[in-house]
Structures are given as C-alpha cells and as structure tokens.
Design brief:
Layout (H helix, E strand, L loop, with lengths): L20 H41 L4 H39 L1
Helix pairs in contact: 1-2
C-alpha cells in the first residue's frame, strides 16, 4: 500500500514512531558517536600542540639574543594560530560527516 508505514522505513511517519526502538537506537548512537569523535580529535590536537610547545621551548633555549627569541616566539604564535584554524575546520568537517553518516544510517 503506497504511503503505508512499515518498520523498515528510515524516517518516522508520526510522533509515535519517534519512540520506536530503531529510532531510539539511532538517536542514542548519534548522541554517543559525535561527542566521542570530537573528544578523540581534541585529544589528538592537544597532543600535537603540547609537542609543538615543547619544541618551541627547546628552540628558545638555543637563542643567543632577545631579538632571536622574539622571532622564534612570533613564528610560534603564527603557527599556533594557523593550527587552531586548521583544527576548527577539521572538527567541523568530522562533525558534519558524522551527522551526515548518522542521518543516512
């Protein structure tokens, strides 16, 4: 029958269908997956930033003049700003892809 609702349909046909186990499972999976993806990416980013910070401190130890130290600091801050911008794009893309994947599931 055209337009009749079956349990195999992906979209809810009414408010009562939102409480079906298949929709609840999908919502739960989305609610758990997306924050986990964000958390994992944030940990990766934090790891890279801490490593960059350690490298920067090592470079500062080798500076012979205040001007050289200022140049290293300026370079580090520029690289840091770029890294945060890139990371924002990465997280946005991963979240968008995760939402699209969950919506298609």
């Amino acid at each position: 029958m055209a337009g009749a609702h079956t349990n195999s349909q992906k979209q809810p046909n009414g408010a009562a269908d939102l409480f079906m186990p298949s929709f609840a499972t999908g919502a739960w999976r989305s609610a758990m997956t997306l924050p986990a993806l964000s958390f994992v990416e944030a940990l990766r980013f934090a790891s890279r930033r801490l490593e960059a910070q350690a490298d920067f401190m090592t470079e500062l130890l080798g500076c012979k003049t205040p001007a050289e130290a200022l140049e290293k600091q300026s370079d580090f801050l520029s690289q840091t700003a770029k890294a945060y911008g890139t990371e924002a794009e990465t997280i946005t893309r991963k979240l968008r892809d995760g939402v699209a994947h969950e919506a298609a599931a």
